[in-house]
């Protein structure tokens, strides 16, 4: 993990977004020898990687530990929604079952059978479950982690993959403690449960277990946000971005993290749009492909949770009428995106653009060396940045309307 994190940090600090330092040098070289047409091929390849890279998350644990409910929560779904994982009360999962994310179908959460059953003994589990296909593993328990859970975590470590121990249904534990009638301190009870889990895992041979206490019915409490951050932090660049964009908009911090990830894509998308074709706007030379811009805006809107389906899911999760959430949205970008809307956005961008090129090119990877300050790229970059800012403001309004909190 340490080696991977160091490599990812080098990529990030080079300010090259999803590109490694070698790829950045190659991009510059291609531009210098063949112009933007050659550089465009490398940019398009990276965008294709963003669209097509798969993220496979394995969720395992004994029957009744809350795996299905957790899988639904991670995808922002209720148990009655289309595509929701079936919550079982008796027989557990008999084979790996994949559940695709409703917005990003290249993200798939896999419900694995519990380890150590007669059909899947611990000795054959790794081979039967095809561990190599999964990016990381979440081991769920509703009470205490078992000997089989520990063996599973050790097998995962030998494959140099990450595992996370999730203690589910923590709200039920706290409710039971409250009912006992004695002096109750939630923080102290949570610490007791966490220390108990960590101590048992350490005694079983797991040196530094990462344990998260969660309720799948209230993701803004307990350790759910900490779990999400841990998963993000351990993933490489592109998969990290995909994971962040897959999160339900549970709080303002998630919205801001999504904005940060999409901002990394803006310069690449502007590069492609700015060289494909020219669309005349009266008084402004906007060299861009409107079809590309329309698709980008629709995608950004979906990732920021402002499409109808996402708003419906969030309203259901928050227990609010979807009309309450839609009522706070004030943007031309949530309806049908037409060339006329693009042109109007371009007019607004042009006013800023012409008044002064205040963009600091060093925040845009590579651009400072391969684009002139007066290029159509810069116009398109400003337009898409404005789009992202608008969607972010409205996504935050929706979060506040849904949960009444930051």
Detailed description of the structure:
With about 400 residues, this protein is of the alpha/beta class. The protein has two domains: about 1-50 and about 250-405, no CATH class; about 55-245, Rossmann fold (3-Layer(aba) Sandwich), CATH 3.40.50. Helices cover about 55% and strands about 10% of the residues. The protein contains 16 helices and eight strands. The chain has helices at about 1-15, 20-50, 65-75, 120-130, 145-160, 170-180, 185-205, 225-235, 235-245, 250-275, 290-305, 310-320, 320-325, 340-355, 365-370, 375-405; strands at about 55-60, 95-100, 105-110, 135-140, 160-165, 210-215, 280, 285. A six-stranded mixed beta sheet has the order 2-3-1-4-5-6, sandwiched between helices. Strands 7-8 form a two-stranded antiparallel sheet. It is globular and about 65 Å long. Mean pLDDT is about 80; it is low at about 1-15, about 275-285 and about 355-360.
Topology (SSEs and partners):
Layout: H1 2-13, H2 21-52, E1 55-60, H3 67-74, E2 97-100, E3 107-111, H4 122-129, E4 136-141, H5 147-158, E5 162-167, H6 170-179, H7 186-203, E6 211-213, H8 224-234, H9 237-246, H10 252-276, E7 279-281, E8 284-286, H11 290-303, H12 308-318, H13 322-326, H14 339-355, H15 367-370, H16 376-403
Parallel strand pairs: 1-3, 1-4, 4-5, 5-6
Antiparallel strand pairs: 2-3, 7-8
Helix pairs in contact: 2-10, 8-9, 10-11, 10-16, 11-16, 14-16
Given as residue ranges, the uncertain stretches (5+ residues, pLDDT < 50) are: 1-16, 276-287, 354-360
State the helicity in percent bands: 55-70%
Number of helices in the DSSP assignment: 16
Number of domains: 2
Quote the beta fraction: 5-15%
The description of the largest β-sheet is: 6 strands, mixed
On the 0 to 100 scale, the average pLDDT is 82
The multimeric state of the shown protein is single chain
Radius of gyration: 24 Å
How many angstroms separate the termini?
A: 32 Å
Number of strands: 8
Order of helices and strands: HHEHEEHEHEHHEHHHEEHHHHHH
Strand order of the largest sheet: 2-3-1-4-5-6
Approximate shape: globular
Based on secondary structure, the structural category is alpha/beta
């Amino acid at each position: 993990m340490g080696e991977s994190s160091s490599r990812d940090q080098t990529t990030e600090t080079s300010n090259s977004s999803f590109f490694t330092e070698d790829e950045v040098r190659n991009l510059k070289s291609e531009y210098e020898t063949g112009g933007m047409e050659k550089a465009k091929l490398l940019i398009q390849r990276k965008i294709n990687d963003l669209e097509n890279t798969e993220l496979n998350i394995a969720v395992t644990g004994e029957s009744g530990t809350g795996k299905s409910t957790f899988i639904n929560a991670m995808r922002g779904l209720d148990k009655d929604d289309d595509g929701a994982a079936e919550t079982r009360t008796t027989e557990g999962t008999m084979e790996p079952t994949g559940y695709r994310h409703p917005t990003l179908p290249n993200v798939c959460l896999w419900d694995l059978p519990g380890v150590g059953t007669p059909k899947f003994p611990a000795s054959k589990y790794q081979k039967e479950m095809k561990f190599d296909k999964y990016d990381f593993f979440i081991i769920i328990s509703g009470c205490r982690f078992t000997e089989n859970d520990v063996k599973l975590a050790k097998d995962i470590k030998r494959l140099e993959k990450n595992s996370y121990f999730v203690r589910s249904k923590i709200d039920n534990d706290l409710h039971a403690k409250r009912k006992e009638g004695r002096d109750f301190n939630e923080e102290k009870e949570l610490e007791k449960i966490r220390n108990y889990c960590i101590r048992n895992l350490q005694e079983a041979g797991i040196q530094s277990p990462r344990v998260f206490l969660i309720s799948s019915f209230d993701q803004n409490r307990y350790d759910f946000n900490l779990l999400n951050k841990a998963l993000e932090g351990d993933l490489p660049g592109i998969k990290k971005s995909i994971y962040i964009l897959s999160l339900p908009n549970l709080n303002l911090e998630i919205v801001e993290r999504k904005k940060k990830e999409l901002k990394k894509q803006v310069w690449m998308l502007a590069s492609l749009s700015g060289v494909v074709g020219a669309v005349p706007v009266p008084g402004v030379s906007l060299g861009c492909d409107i079809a590309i811009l329309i698709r980008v805006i629709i995608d950004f809107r979906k990732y920021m949770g402002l499409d109808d389906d996402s708003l419906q899911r969030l309203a259901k999760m928050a227990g609010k009428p979807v009309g309450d959430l839609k009522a706070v949205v004030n943007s031309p970008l949530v309806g049908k995106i037409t060339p006329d809307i693009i042109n109007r956005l371009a007019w607004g961008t042009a006013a800023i653009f012409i008044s002064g090129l205040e963009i600091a090119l060093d925040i845009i990877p590579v651009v400072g060396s391969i684009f002139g300050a007066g290029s159509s790229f810069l116009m398109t970059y400003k337009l898409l940045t404005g789009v992202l800012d608008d969607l972010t403001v409205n996504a935050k309004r929706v979060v506040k309307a849904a949960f009444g909190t930051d």
